[in-house]
Amino acid sequence: MVRYVYDFAEGGRDQAALLGGKGANLAEMTRLGLPVPPGFTVTTDACRAFLTTGSEPAGLIGEISDHLTVLEGVAGRRLGQPDDPLLLSVRSGARFSMPGMMETILDVGLNDESVLGLAKVSGNERFAWDSYRRLVQMFGSTVMGVDGSLFEGVLDGLKRARGAANDVDLTAADLAGLVESYQNLVRDQTGEYFPQSPAEQLSRAVLAVFESWNGERARIYRRREHIPDDLGTAVNVQTMVFGNLGADSGSGVAFTRDPATGRPGLYGDYLANAQGEDVVAGIRNTVPLTALADLDPASYEDLRSHMRTLERHYRDLCDIEFTIERGRLWMLQTRVGKRTSEAAFAIAAELADEGLITPDEGLARVSGEGLARLMFPRFDTSAVGEALAHGLPASPGAAVGAAVFDSAEAVRRSAAGEKVVLVRQETTPDDLPGMIAAQAVLTSRGGKTSHAAVVARGMGTVCVCGAEEITVDTGARRFTVGDTVVEEGTVVSVDGSEGAVYLGAAPLVDSAVMRYFETGERSDGLVGAVAGAMERADGLRRLEVRANADTPEDAARARRFGAQGIGLCRTEHMFLGERRKLVEAMILARDEGERERALAALLPLQRRDFTGILEAMDGLPVTIRLIDPPLHEFLPDRTGLAVRIAAAEARGERPDPHDTELLDAVNRMHEENPMLGLRGVRLGLVVPGLVAMQVRAIAEAVVERTRAGGRPRAEIMVPLVGAVEELRIERAEVERVLAEVSEESGVPVRLPVGTMIELPRAALTAGRIAEEAEFFSFGTNDLTQTTWGFSRDDVEAAFFSAYLDKGIFATSPFETIDRDGVGRLVRIAVDEGRAARPELKIGVCGEHGGDPESVHFFHAAGLDYVSCSPFRVPVARLEAGRAALDSTRTNDSR
């Protein structure tokens, strides 16, 4: 028979999956001999059974009754005993902390009779009625479904009538009347009386806590924190101790270290004559925990001693709830405390220095996500007013600038020394110059993996996407939010970490951690803690970390941040700006001669690009991807051209011949789904001379750097290969050009040729493709699109929120690798590729290369390196070290 209830004395902190975090820690404190009010825990197994069937599992009520009998024997009182009642608290306790997300019911066991006994035995009539009104309020809202604001309204009305500023100003008679009003409210709202049976109160309270697992706020919190929906919650039933017995009683929350900074010491709040819920709810102003030293020195010293015991036992920051009942301290809860990113690094370093944890344990307690938060500048939140609008936090950081509405204006103002924020409905590749010039990008459409988000993250530019409250009027050069109109030139502040937009210039706080990565400067203790974690991670990690970089400047920054090469250099970004005309000429060429002249003009420009990047990454590998996007992206907008021609004809004028020629070309190249059309390797096979020009530019750059005494390590990557035959033909062309340049220059140029695995067919035929490829690089952005059948730029705004709500996704598959689908394709390709070519080098260069959770997957899948934007290189380095640590622990446990 399944057992559903455990006494506090029976468990321990290693049973959090069964007893929940709170129950496991109550059991642990009990075993340590700390003053814990006795009680028992109803397991998560019981909750899951209840949620599955809709009723309590067989035997549960009997088990609760048996444990209650034992508890009554220990206390020497019975639940609801008329003359001296035992009262209970009923609290949720999930495996992972979900503070305030589920229900609590205090003072269970009081009724119209036992409240009189409590008043007599305590000698405090006011306390008894205060406890009873709390029970009716909590039980009425939590168990019986009465709107909690109705109770608050009755209480506020009573305080106004009595001229009372706080609850404590109400008399016993006031509170007795309040109980009657609350009971009437319950009857009016539900049609039933507040239950007088203590046993009914307890059983219904337990089931209500179970039901709160699926409450809206709990579900939202779990989505945000990536907590599985099927864990369920435990319920802790505990003897009540009372902080609301008078001035010599109270409740508080304490931390063994500052959860904001990590500094050692006692931090927290205390509230005299209050139950624990009062402290959390903020109904009265608390005093600092240190004030307890004067209010109750003995309890303060006991608390300090227990806190030292807990921190040394848990070897971590502990978050503690306690109550003092008439001068006696009771410990109600402890858990490893939540903390800021700054505190996480500081605490891990200090505990390692103190010898409480090992350096490896310290590394396990920090995260790449936390490091990312520390790298970006932040607004001084104390000086920021209410946000004008909210969107998706697509690229973290904080930036201030004048709103501009097109790329050219962003470039113009930036060149004049003005900081700007580029505001668009959505961005396109044409907006890249403006995005580079801008301090931040703000769009009213798109998701976290839209063009704006992906490019902004790659550049380390602040970005908020999908701010639907904003209506962008590009023609009028303004955006509106309700009645607020923001004209071009108006200064706005964009918080990419929180997804918020503010009017005016909010003050910024610099990131010392970013300065450390840029310059090596160690300015404070936090930076020292970060540096120590990075050194440990670098010493452990197996994965190399490269960067996605398209310019010498990006390459140099990536190297400063610790990149071990470039995993993706996108050549199409080099064709924008003034070079666009040359690409246009190549596309519009009427014969082979015109095309060759256009390609010849592009050659020295490409060679200069590659030379600069190879110089910045001298001695390290640079993987250069041949041109990938559809050629029509380099031509003007089809609709705009058609409108311009039609307008000229409507005026009786002859349309510009160049416009007509462009429209003909655009129409010839138009595709319904260009991302699955003529791009990647297909371009190289269809457009004569394009691959040869790019390969020659790479090879001649290698020659130039070699002659200058450098150590260039270029690699050529062919994109969008779906069949080995495509790669075989294109590789032959690459080898031909390399041989030509070697002969012409007298410098041997032997460059590895590999491919990007971004189509399911490529992954499934990786064994054959490896016959021609010397390396693989997974393009997980496109591999995710083609595996799921999603258009990255469309689906997030269309239905991802619904998929997240329904639990189809735990997180976007464009943010974190889909292990079951896309991940399986990756593993197949790794296994079959290496079976065909054991020395095959394999990496990943999609957005997932910088995602902490995905880095752990790539380590386990056996990849050699991950590549990500320069600003995410430190994050990937840290997580690669943590992944190696996890792998070692897993192997050691087998």
What tags apply to this protein structure?
alpha/beta; eight-stranded mixed sheet; 894 residues; 47% helix
Describe this structure in words.
It is a single chain. With 894 residues, the protein is α/β, with parallel strands linked by helices. The protein contains 35 helices and 31 strands. The strands form six sheets. An eight-stranded mixed β-sheet has the order 12-22-21-14-15-16-17-13. It has an eight-stranded parallel beta barrel with strand order 24-25-26-27-28-29-30-31, surrounded by six helices. The protein has a five-stranded antiparallel β-sheet with strand order 1-2-5-3-4. Helix 6 (148-162) packs antiparallel against helix 7 (172-190), helix 15 packs antiparallel against helix 35 and helix 24 runs antiparallel to helix 25. The protein is elongated and about 105 Å long. The chain starts with a strand and ends with a helix. The model has no long low-confidence stretch (mean pLDDT 89).
